[in-house]
Amino acid sequence: MNLEIALLLGQDGIVNGAIYALLALALVLVFAVTRVIFIPQGEFVAYGALTLATFQMGKTPNTIWLLLGVGILVALIDTIIAVRGGNLGRLKRIVLWNLVLPAVVVGLVLLLEPGKLPLAAQVALTLAIVVPLGPMVYRLVYQPLAEASVLILLIVSVAVHLVLAGLGLLFFGAEGSRTTPFSEAQFQLGTLAVNGQTVFVVGTSVVLIIALYQFFGRTLYGKALRATAINRVGARLMGISNTMAGKLSFTLAAGIGALSGILISPITTVYYDTGFMIGLKGFVAAIIAGLASYPLAAAGAVLVGLLESFSSFWASAFKEVIVFTLIIPVLMWRSLTSHHVEEEE
Amino acid sequence: MKVKSIVVALLSAGAVTLAHADITVGVSVSATGPAASLGIPEQNTFTLMPTEIGGEKVKYIILDDASDTTTAVRNARKFVSEDKVDAIIGSTITPNSLAMIDVAAEAETPLVSMAASARIVEPMDPKRHWVFKTPQNDLQMSTAITEHMSNLGVKTVAFIGFSDAYGEGWWNEFSKMVDLRKLKMVANERFSRTDTSVTGQVLKIMSANPDAILIAGSGTPSALPQKALKEKGYKGKIYQTHGAANNDFLRVCGKDCEGTFMPTGPMLVASQLPDTNPMKKSALDYVTKYEKAFGAGSVATFGGHAWDAGMLLVNAIPVALKKSKPGTKEFRAALRDALEGTKELYASHGVFTMTPTDHLGLDQRARVMVRVEGGKWVLEK
User: Fold this and answer.
1) pLDDT score at B63
2) CA–CA distance, A123 with A216 (Å, rounded to integer)
3) In a domain, B275, yes or no
4) B9 at the A interface (CB within 8 A)?
5) Residues of A with CB below 8 A from B224's CB?
6) Which of A39, A53, A218, A321 would staple A177 via disulfide (CB 3.0–4.6 Å)?
7) How far apart are the CA of A301 and the nearest CA of chain B, in angstroms?
8) How many Cβ contacts (< 8 angstroms) between chains A and B?
9) Rounded-to-integer distance, Cα A228 and Cα A231, Å
10) pLDDT at A340
């Protein structure tokens, strides 16, 4: 190994690490606010990437029908609950968010021929399709179980993951796709050739992390999420709706997932089940951070990325083993240094 | 995994609503999971199979094993205990097929596998007595690749394959052939289907500077090392295995795959074969049928393996019917004998001639070398 190879591996590790960092942040966020270990996070990566790829092939992605279908289901349930509770004032919002919004998105996709639109518009449409699925999934699956134990929420997450992965196979088929890069530029940094897409990935991740930091530190909604994460009951007593916090965190998680998918799809082939593996690596990073600390999660993600890249050079057959074995010393160290707090039931 | 496969199995079982038929064939394919891109064209192919053979109605019971070994075995058990099948076809991938051998042998039911590894039918023993397979052995394909390499004056080669049974199997056969041909192996790397980056492996291979590289992967994942090699400026020859011979691979790989060589069954380039080649008619027969049902350009070599398994039965069932009635132990034994007695059967991938020791029965006619040119497969002469 010489310096040039080390630099190339380092670059590769940091690019992958940046994506893992985004997913790790989303996992920490969702867990802190709702106590859900969000295994389906990876499916949003695949949905984002493959929806964009379908646009670029000049076809209509089936995810729009999923959006419409789930929207109708949510609207139906919410309307029944609202009517029963005599709470007719809520109907307008229910219809707007769950029926009108998806219908507008579907209409745009069908009318505009997205294959011919500029890339930015395609990305915006993709996000408009995939992101609303986040809060809808929360409403359908997790909201009725909001007070359940972490274990039950985990089992439900596995179920949601299997359903979404199965739908992914149905929508996109078994084979993978790539999308066109955002930038074909090549830079020369000393002896190291850097292409535009990798700069784009790392740059977007950094911007997103800073934006999240500002969001949690400076906005009312961000502070509401933090309050819920620290103490659910206390937050509720202060007038912060746990349901709102849950939906908001799932929206952010779905958004981060879809965006990660869009970022990586030009550098690697994305399959309907690719997201799961990327999500797991993000999960390793989140575990390093004890599912609690955002900066540690980001650092852990870069560590996972670098470890993966260097181990693929030295011992490619054992790459996954090395990456996932990392979790054992981390867990031992965690359980030895921290007190175990029994969860309140 | 389990829940998903059960649901899919129930659904597909429900889809088969044919009335009770005289001959029953149990089919286990990997239509979901990592091998789905191989299993789906196979599953499609069974809709084209003849429903009447030798004057008897044939019923195909198709179950999905989700690329999972345990599910494949459960499917096989269900076939022999509940459905009392006369023959089993399956599965798509090697680990599943190996696991099904025990069930088939125990129930004395012939099994035709659609998976590639030679270990499914070799070495011949009392269990494999009941087992046949249709895809070409890795060894046959390795021979074709190394021969092609020597002809082009290649001296040093590198290998990068899947970190699973597929890659390992290829490594074993290919490294042997490389030694026999007096080529020099300079690097041996692995990657997995779900990898998002192979930069490390590619850098390692390129630092060894080989004349040619073999990428042993199946379907679209095998495009990843190829794209990385081109991106890092590799100028030598790149070979793929027949596992990558589908149109999705070309779509994903795009211009980075130009000039790639691979061995494959003749059906992939059936229309380019000279009219004098006796393979042309039987290969085109399947290609035309499949594309008529599923659209132009949809055919994949994997579906051909399923077709060939069906053709073996079509050929053997009339012989067995002369000896016994379907649904009996005697019929299954007669069917096995008839399969073993297959002689010069032209199918989509080659010509089958079975013997008691050779339950594959393909020869040199079952492979050609192709080159990717302008996003199309071109026959190498």
Assistant:
1) 95
2) 25
3) no
4) no
5) 268-269
6) A53
7) 15
8) 105
9) 5
10) 60
Give the residue from chain B lying closest to A192, CA to CA: B232
Number of folded domains that form chain B = 2
A309 contacts B196? CB cut-off 8 A: no
Q: Are residues B252 and B206 in the same domain?
A: yes
Largest interatomic CA distance in chain B: 64
* Predicted-complex ipTM score: 0.77
Summarised one tens digit per residue, pLDDT across range A27-40 is 999 998 999 999 99
Q: What single string gives the DSSP state of each residue in B27-65?
A: EEE--SSTTHHHHHHHHHHGGGS-SEETTEEEEEEEEE-
Give the residue from B87, B12, B31, B92 showing the smallest Cα distance to B56: B87
Distance spanning both ends of chain A, measured CA to CA: 54
CB contact under 8 A, A269 and B194: no
Flag whether pLDDT at A191 surpasses 80: no
Residue B181 domain boundaries:
138-264
**Closest chain B C-alpha to A127 CA, distance in angstroms:** 22
- Chain A residues lying within 8 Å of B234, measured CB to CB: none
Same domain, B132 and B142: no
Tens digits of residue pLDDT in A307-316 = 999 999 988 8
pTM of the model: 0.79
Which amino acid is it at A59?
K
Instruction: Give tens-digit pLDDT for A135-182.
Output: 999 999 999 998 899 999 999 999 999 999 999 988 998 788 888 888
Minimal Cβ distance to A9: which of B192, B199, B224: B199
Q: Does A176 touch chain B (CB under 8 A)?
A: yes
- Note whether B204 contacts A: Cβ–Cβ < 8 A: yes
Q: pLDDT band at residue B3, thresholds of 50, 70 and 90? A: low
Do the Cβ atoms of B204 and A309 come closer than 8 Å? no
Q: Are residues B150 and B75 in the same domain?
A: no
Domain check: are B226 and B311 in the same one? Answer: no
Q: What is the CATH number of the domain that holds B240?
A: 3.40.50.2300
Nearest to B220 among A15, A176, A319 (CB): A176
Cα dihedral B128→B133→B135→B137 (10° resolution): 20
Chain A closest-CA separation from residue B50 CA (Å): 27
Copy the structure tokens of residue A141: 């699956």
Which residues face B60 on adjacent strands? B25
Measured between CB atoms, does A186 come within 8 Å of chain B? no
Name, in order, each residue with C-beta under 8 angstroms of A223's C-beta and a sequence gap of 6 or more: A216
Strands (DSSP E) found in chain B: 23-29, 52-53, 56-64, 87-90, 111-113, 131-133, 156-162, 184-191, 212-216, 237-240, 261-264, 345-346, 351-352, 368-373, 376-379
Per-residue model confidence (pLDDT) at position A345: 42
B130 and B47 in one domain? yes
Going by C-alpha positions, the residue among B268, B255, B274, B272 that lies closest to residue B298 is B268
Answer yes or no: is B271 within a domain. Answer: no
pLDDT of residue A113: 83
Residue carrying the six token digits 């996992």 = A27
pLDDT, average across residues B49-73: 91
Six-digit token pair at B105? 């042998």
Task: Determine the distance in angstroms separating the CA of B150 from the nearest CA of chain A, rounded to an integer.
Answer: 28
* Strand pairing report for B345-346 and B131-133: unpaired
B209 touches chain A (CB under 8 A): no
**Angle CA(B58)–CA(B60)–CA(B65) in degrees, nearest 5?**
165
Strand partners, B87: B25
Nearest chain B Cα distance for residue A182, angstroms: 16
Name every chain B residue with its beta carbon within 8 A of the beta carbon of A278: 196
Q: Which pLDDT band, with edges at 50, 70 and 90, does A342 fall under?
A: low
Give pLDDT tens digits for A30-73.
998 999 999 999 999 999 999 999 999 888 999 999 999 999 99
* Gyration radius of chain B's alpha carbons: 20
Same domain, B359 and B331: yes
